[in-house]
Specification:
Lipocalin, two-stranded antiparallel ribbon, mainly beta, 201 residues, 1 helix, 46% strand, 2 domains
Length: 201
């Protein structure tokens, strides 16, 4: 039973018995100010305040440079490290990548361009397969989501999903690419980690 002379909301008294009854609006404001300032001193529990989530804007790394492949994990049994060089131009709104395989007169080059404004870029592989890619920056990484359309000997087409995540080392001397290939059904085909070292241009 509520004690006479006290005010309550539910089971929580809003005026202790040792305080005078508050009748005016101004007096109620003073009373609420008293609660805010004095409750911590009295040791009464305080409501928990949760900070609002904020989006971190951080600086986006620039991937421009010439990069040479130095490590692939996991290693492929019976195969040596392929000769692969990436020449990257990161303009901030698009990324152009020239891949060079082999060396000397046996070197082959092909060029890819990706957009960072949400557009889907269309490129062709050396064998003529269509590569459709959507690129975005996320938490200091460059994420490439691609669909590779290949023609099968039977005449049918198959679309493989390729996900790449690029990150730079803190000193900017190494480029790491996490590569995941999946079958159209979602089945994992290959997962690799490629490590590149920056070379003088």
């Amino acid at each position: 039973m509520e004690e006479k002379g006290s005010q309550a909301i539910g089971n929580f008294p809003i005026r202790p018995r040792f305080l005078p009854r508050v009748r005016s609006l101004w007096g109620q404001e003073v009373f609420l100010l008293f609660l805010v300032l004095c409750l911590p001193l009295l040791g009464w529990p305080q409501p928990t305040v949760y900070p609002q989530a904020t989006q971190s804007t951080g600086s986006s790394p620039n991937f421009s440079g010439t990069w040479v492949l130095v490590e692939v994990q996991p290693t492929r049994k019976g195969k040596s490290l392929p000769a692969l060089t990436l020449t990257i131009e990161d303009s901030g709104t698009s990324v152009t990548q020239v891949r060079t395989t082999g060396t000397g007169t046996h070197a082959q080059h092909w060029k890819y361009t990706f957009y960072l404004d949400g557009r889907v870029a269309e490129n062709r592989t050396p064998r003529g397969a269509l590569l459709q890619t959507q690129a975005r920056r996320a938490k200091g990484r460059l994420v490439l989501s691609s669909w590779l359309t290949r023609d099968l000997p039977s005449g049918r087409k198959i679309r493989l999903h390729i996900q790449e995540a690029w990150t730079l080392s803190p000193d900017g001397t190494q480029l790491r690419i996490e590569l995941v290939r999946r079958h159209p059904s979602g089945r994992l085909l290959r997962r690799e980690r490629l490590l590149f070292r920056r070379v003088a241009s």
